[in-house]
Hints:
single chain; alpha+beta; Transcriptional Co-activator pc4, Chain A; four-stranded antiparallel beta sheet
Amino acid sequence: MKEFSYEIKEHLATLSTVQGEKREITLELNLISFGDRPAKYDLRTWDRTNGKMLKGVTLTREEAEALTKALTDHLKKNA
């Protein structure tokens, strides 16, 4: 079985932080390379207290552009 590896190539933003009694959870947007593959946009929650990656979604550049357009259109329409 191959070892799971990743490298955060660039931290783009921390969108939110929730401080609990026992841990700090952040929602972050990063460029991450999984294995030795090219980096992708990764929107994910992190348990920063324990250094663990939690649930998230990984997007190619094209998917990130489509998401950006959809969000921009929606926000303009509902301003």
